[in-house]
Structure formats: structure tokens, C-alpha cells
Specification:
Blueprint lengths: L8 H9 L2 H19 L3 H10 L20 H6 L12 E6 L9 E5 H17 L7 E4 L8 H13 L2 E3 L6 H11 L3 E4 L1 H13 L11 E5 L12 H10 L2 E8 L4 E4 L7 E2 L5 E6 L12 E7 L10 E7 L1 E2 L11 E2 L4 E2 L4 E3 L2 E3 L1 H8 L5 E10 L5 E9 L6 H12 L4 E5 L1 H8 L10 E3 L3
Parallel strand pairs: 3-4, 3-5, 5-6, 6-7, 18-21, 19-20
Antiparallel strand pairs: 1-2, 7-8, 9-14, 10-11, 11-12, 12-15, 13-14, 16-17, 18-19
Bound molecules: zinc ion.
Zinc ion (ZN) binds next to loops.
């Protein structure tokens, strides 16, 4: 990291311990710079020109709420209007995973790569990673995937050592853990669980290994009250280390990582403004769940303003026990598009999957939803289980106890459920089948 730039660790720590009102003054300058930069992007040039919006239109940060939202549909409808169209400035091209349609092309400039490294360096720092620490990266750095590159750049710019083991190859991973003794392991939770169990089955003392910090990516491991899901608890038990959950997306080029307090991911004040909005686009107060809207500050190659992520979460403020006064984004609670309605209550599929994690015999599950009337969805939970002791009624009782709903439950063989979930050949097994109109 360059000294005296905004992406400097010492300056970053100062900004995070600052009194919030003073910090907001700084952030207003970051936001104005950001708005000026978006004028290089055809979508924003036209949108802001039409609405008379300029960088100085905003007297304070509250002015952000007057700007129009950007949606995933805006990007999908006219991808050519987004992204910097200047080859001389582009250093890397990332692609979104394309789980909802065509992958989006996200160009990175040199400054964006620096910003990315800084983001992860500060996140690692907040999770207790320091200079000289070794980090085993079990995520891929290739295939136009940005997160692996971001973690690598973060570790090295912080002064740590990256071990780029990549995904899979459990025996090789254990060889590296024994030989190179990393303090931190980073990966997708399901893989880290598999790796831990394989280690136990093959004579390794996993909980006493060099690994004391487990950083997860991709799947939520905490509930809205910050408690770990059953999978999260298993991860901590197996590895005998602390789990830190991270959340991010390729489109907004920013990740939120948990600090030692594990009470949400700190919002990086020089990199991000976060709002939470309800269905009518009203900004919600602290602690209320709604759609996460992000304005990733300082991005040059693919700048966005008020991007509606489609994810549900809540913001928390107040001084964190780690000493930072920045807001924290709680665990993601589901996808807005997957919200389910059941007899006057609403919930997300994640709540069902968390409840099912209590059954160790259940190997996989997915949800099918069909609309019957305006207000209530017809929900079926299909569970993969080869143990006759688990029946439909015990599963329904568990769901009733956890989330107070009694959807129809169908038990099938593990192999059958697994084959349906992997049927479309996507990167991740499909867990939600929506037949609602
Ligand atoms: Zn904290």
C-alpha cells in the first residue's frame, strides 16, 4: 500500500476510530469524488444530466438518498452503458458468476486493484491477521473470479504470506497445513468442513493444528442475532478456531469482513456507503431488516451508485467492542426475490436451511414454491435423508419450533435430492425452485 494515499492502513485505523460526525465530513468528499467519476459512465452521465445531479448537489451525506437507485435489471438491460470504456486504463477483467443470467463484465483499473487489496488488508487486520501471518487460500485465483485475487492481494499488502493452495485436493491441503503451518485458512464453508472432517478421519489432530482463524466466503454462517448456524458451530468445533464470515459481490467490488467481535462486517468508510431500504424504497432505521443498497466509493472501472443488491440484511451502529466506531452490516438473511409468504408472516429459505442443519442425518434439501393465492405461498421442502429415523413429521415439528411455519415436507433419498440440486450444472447446487408467477 502506498503511504499518504487514502489506502493506507494507519490512516484507515484513524478513520475507523474517529467520531462519526467528523468521519461523515470526510465521506462526503469521497462521495462527491465518486459522483464526478461516474460521469465517465454513459448510464450515469445520461441519468444525472436528465435530473440535474452534480457532485456538489449534496450538502451532506443525507443527499445520497435523493439520487436514483441502480438495479441489476438496469445493468442487464444495457451492460454496454456500464463499465469504463478505456482499454488503456483497464488492468483486469472480472466476471460475475452468472447465477442470474449472463455474467456481467467488470473491468478493474490499477487504482481499483489497489482499492481491492486495501479492502481485504483492512478486513484481515480486523480479524486479527498481522504481518508475518500465513494464510492458506483454498479459493481459486483464476477463471475471472475476483474474490481469490482480492484475498491474495490483501494478505500480501498487509505483510502476510499467502499460500495459494486453491480449492479441492484435501490430502494436498493437509500436507501444506502440516508443512507450512498457516495461522489462517480461508474458503467456502462446505469445503472447509469437508477438509476438517477428512483430517479427523485420516489421523490429523485438526483442532490442535496451526490454524486458529477460519475465514469463510460465499455462504452465510450466522443468523441475524450473530449466533453461528449449526454449520458455523461445526466449523469452529472441528478447527478449534474462530470463524469470521465475509460478504461481498463482484458487482460492487467490496467485501465486508467480521472483526474479532463477530458482530457484523464493518463498513469500510473510505470504500462504501450502505443503506437499508424497504419495499417502497424508504430508508430503514438501524436494526431493521431490508434490502442492502451499496454505493462503493472510489471505484473507477465499474462505478455504481445506490446499487440494489437484492440481498436482505440490517445495519448496526454504536462503538464495536473491537474499538471501531464504523457501522456494521449484519449477516445476509436471504434474497429479496426468494422471500416466502406463509399465513401472514414472511421469511426466507435460509431460515428453513438453518433449522434443517439440526439434523445431522439430512444431507441436502431444497425448496419448491408455487403460488396459490395472493397472500400465501404453497411451499414444499424436499429433504434428502437415508436414515429411517427421520420422518416428515419430525422435520415439520423442527420447522415449527424454529420458524413457526408448517410447510409440506417430502423426504427422498439423498442421491435423488442431490441429483435434482445439481441438475442445471451450475457452480453451486440449486436450493430454491420458484414456480410463482
Ligand atoms: Zn468490530
Amino acid at each position: 500500500m502506498q503511504k499518504n494515499s487514502v489506502y493506507d492502513l494507519d490512516q484507515a485505523l484513524e478513520l475507523r476510530r474517529m467520531e462519526p460526525a467528523s468521519r461523515k465530513q470526510r465521506q462526503l468528499l469521497f462521495l462527491r469524488d465518486h459522483i464526478t467519476r461516474t460521469l465517465c459512465i454513459p448510464f450515469y452521465r445520461e441519468l444525472y444530466g436528465k435530473n440535474g445531479i452534480t457532485a456538489t448537489s449534496m450538502a451532506d451525506l443525507n443527499g445520497l438518498a435523493d439520487l436514483p437507485f441502480t438495479t441489476r435489471e438496469d445493468i442487464d438491460a444495457a451492460p454496454a452503458l456500464f463499465g469504463l470504456n478505456d482499454e488503456r486504463q483497464i488492468r483486469d477483467i472480472a466476471l460475475t458468476s452468472g447465477t442470474t443470467g449472463e455474467p456481467v463484465i467488470v473491468p478493474y483499473t490499477q487504482e481499483d486493484l489497489q482499492r481491492l487489496a486495501f479492502n481485504e488488508a483492512v478486513a484481515f487486520y480486523s480479524a486479527g491477521v498481522r504481518k508475518g501471518d500465513r494464510v492458506l487460500l483454498t479459493v481459486t485465483l483464476d477463471r475471472c473470479f475476483i474474490a481469490g485475487l482480492a484475498y491474495y492481494a490483501g494478505v500480501t499488502s498487509l505483510g502476510g504470506t499467502a499460500i495459494r493452495s486453491g480449492p479441492g485436493q484435501v490430502a494436498r491441503q493437509w500436507y501444506l497445513i502440516e508443512k507450512l503451518r498457516p495461522k489462517v485458512i480461508l474458503g467456502v464453508p462446505s469445503f472447509l468442513l469437508e477438509l476438517g472432517r477428512w483430517g479427523q478421519d485420516n489421523g490429523y489432530n485438526v483442532a490442535a493444528s496451526s490454524v486458529t482463524t477460519v475465514i469463510t466466503i460465499g455462504e452465510p454462517m450466522r443468523k441475524p442475532d450473530f449466533s453461528l448456524t449449526e454449520s458455523g458451530r461445526q466449523l469452529e468445533n472441528i478447527w478449534g478456531g474462530r470463524v469470521h464470515v465475509s460478504y461481498g459481490a463482484t458487482e460492487f467490488e467490496t467485501a465486508f469482513g467480521e472483526c474479532s467481535a463477530a458482530a457484523g462486517g464493518h463498513v469500510h468508510p473510505e470504500l462504501m456507503l450502505v443503506e437499508i431500504v424497504d419495499e417502497d424504497d424508504n430508508i430503514l432505521p438501524e436494526g431493521k431488516p431490508g434490502e442492502i443498497v451499496v454505493t462503493p466509493l472510489g471505484v473507477r472501472g465499474f462505478p455504481l451508485v445506490r446499487f440494489k443488491t437484492g440481498d436482505i440484511g440490517r445495519l448496526h451502529s454504536g462503538i464495536c467492542s473491537c474499538g471501531w466506531s464504523t457501522e456494521r452490516l449484519g449477516p445476509t438473511e436471504g434474497r429479496l426475490a426468494q422471500r416466502l409468504k406463509y399465513k401472514g408472516t414472511t421469511f426466507y429459505p435460509e431460515a428453513v436451511f438453518y433449522a434443517l442443519q439440526d439434523f445431522t442425518q439430512i444431507t441436502a434439501a431444497y425448496i419448491e414454491v408455487r403460488s396459490i393465492t395472493e397472500g400465501t405461498d404453497d411451499i414444499t421442502v424436499i429433504v434428502g435423508c437415508d436414515d429411517a429415523q427421520v420422518n416428515e413429521e419430525t422435520v415439520v415439528a423442527k420447522l415449527q419450533a424454529h420458524i413457526r411455519v408448517r410447510p409440506e415436507v417430502v423426504i427422498k433419498s439423498s442421491a435423488e435430492v442431490d441429483s435434482v440440486m445439481r441438475g442445471d450444472g451450475g457452480r453451486k447446487p440449486k436450493k430454491f425452485f420458484d414456480f410463482r408467477k
